[in-house]
Amino acid sequence: MKTFICILFAVTCWVVATAEDSPTVLTLNKAMNELKKIKEWSKGQDNNMQIHSPTVNDIEDCCIASALKCFRSKVIDIPVNDKVKMSQIWINRNLGKTLIVKSVSSCSREETEKAQCKACDSYPLVHRHKFLENFHTLLQKIFVRLQ
Questions:
Q1: Which of 81, 66, 76 is nearest to 120 (CA)?
Q2: For the stretch 66-89, what's the b/e string if a residue is b when 16 or more beta carbons lie within 10 angstroms of its beta carbon?
Q3: Where does the chain show beta strands of DSSP type E?
Q4: Neighbours of 20 (CB within 10 A)
Q5: Which of these, 38, 50, 47, lies nearest to 127 by C-alpha position?
Q6: Each residue's pLDDT tens digit, 58-107
Q7: Nearest to 104 by CA among 73, 52, 67
Q8: pTM to 2 decimals?
C-alpha cells in the first residue's frame, strides 16, 4: 500500500509540474530534445553539407515564424540514419502545426508583410553543424519569449 501511495504521489507531482506548461512550450521542449539527437548523431559524420540558415541576429521579430518554417523544411534534408530520421520528421511535423506558428508570431499580418521576411534560399550557406546550432538558438529564443 505504501508503494502505491508513493507512486501515486510521484505521478501526481509530475502531472502538476507539467500542467503548468502550455502545449506550445512542451512541443518546443520536445523539439529541442529531438534536435539534440540530430546534433549528436551529426557530430560523428564527415559530411560537409552546406545549408541555407537564418541566424537569430538576421531575424526580425515579425519573421520568426518564417525562419522557423525555413529551419523545419531544411532540417529534413540532413542525411541521417533511420532512428534519427524519426526526430527530423517529428520536428518537421510538429513545429509546423498552427498552434506553434500562431504562438511564435507576435506581429499582425500587416506588420509581417511590412517586415519582408527573407526566403529560405536567400540566407547564407553554412555547415550543417552551424545550421543545427542556429536552429537550436531560435528555438531557445522562442521558448524564452513564451515563458
A1: 66
A2: bbbbbbbebbeebebeeebeebbe
A3: 50-52, 125-127
A4: 7
A5: 50
A6: 788 888 888 999 999 999 999 888 889 999 999 999 988 877 777 777 78
A7: 67
A8: 0.79
